[in-house]
Amino acid sequence: MRRNLGHEAAEVKGGTKGKLDSPGLLTEEGALKDTCIAVTSGSVSAKSSRMIPRSSSNPPWILFVEGLPGSGKSTSARKLSETLPLEHLCYEENHPENPVGFLWRGDTARSAILDTRLDRYPFAAWDELASSGKNVILESRLLQNTLLFTMLNGSPESEGAGILQRILEALSGYRIGLIYLQQSDPLAHTLQTLESRRISHPSWEPFIQDLFSALPWCQQRQLQGTEAFVQSMLHWADQLDAAVERLSIPKAVLTDPWRDFARSEEKILSFCRQVAESSPE
C-alpha cells in the first residue's frame, strides 16, 4: 500500500557512490567560469556558467531523472541543465542523439520495448559513454527504459535487474545520482496526465492505446486501450518505488514535486551539486 506522503516529504539518501550529509544549498564560491553544453529538445546550445574544474581527482558524474509519465522528468532535466553550474550534456528521453539504450519514439517504441532483454540490450553504448568521461544528465534511461520495458515485454523481473546491474557496472568509475519524482496517488496522477495530454498532445493517447494494447504484459491480462496504459502505470509505480528503495546509490526522492515546484527545484539542484562533489566508490 502506498502512503500519501505529500510534497513536504523529500528524501536525500546516500549510497555506495558517495555520502550526502545535508539537503541544504551549497555555495558556488571558488567555482570557475567556463562553457556549459546543454543538449535539450533536439538542439545544442552553449552558455556561460560557473564551473567546477575537472581534474583526475574530480571524476565525471551522471544524474538520472526518473518518474511516471507527466511527473516532470523532462522539465526537471531541462531546468537542471539550465541552472546546474557544471559542464555537462543533458539528454531528454526522446532526444534523437541520446547515447544509450533504445530510442523511445513513434515507430520504434514497440521494438525498443520488445528488444529490452539481456541478450539484445546495447550495453556497448553505456561502455562508450563511460569511456568518454563526460558529465551527463539522462531522463528515464536507468529504470523506465530497463525495468518498465522488461515488465511490458513479459520478461521475468530478473531480466530487468540483470540489465540494470550491467549498466551500473559500466558506470563504476562515475559519481552517480538518482532523482525520483514520486507520486503519492499514481491513479489520480495518471488520469490527470491523460486528461492534460488530450489537450496538449491530441495524438498521444491513441498512440499509447495502440502501443500498450499490443504488449505482452497487457495481452496476458486482456487489457486494451486506455485501460491497458493505466493498469500498466499503476503496476509500474509500485515496481518503481521498490526499485528506487533497493538501489544503493545516492538518491533524492521528491513526492508530488509539482505542488511546490520551485522548492523541489532547489532540492534537486542541491542534491546534484552534492553528487558532483562526492567521490566514486
Could you explain the architecture of this structure?
The structure is a single chain. With about 280 residues, this protein is an alpha/beta fold. It has one domain (about 10-190, about 245-275): 3-Layer(aba) Sandwich (Rossmann fold). Helices cover about 40% and strands about 15% of the residues. The chain is built from ten helices and eight strands. Strands 1-8-7-4-6-5 form a six-stranded mixed β-sheet, with helices on both faces. Strand 2 (about 30-40) and strand 3 form a beta hairpin. Helix 4 (about 145-150) packs antiparallel against helix 5, helix 6 crosses helix 9 (about 225-245) and helix 7 packs across helix 9 (about 225-245). The longest helix is centred in the last third of the chain and has 22 residues, at about 225-245. It is globular.
Task: Give a quick rundown of the structure.
By secondary structure, this protein is an alpha/beta fold. It has 10 helices and 8 strands.
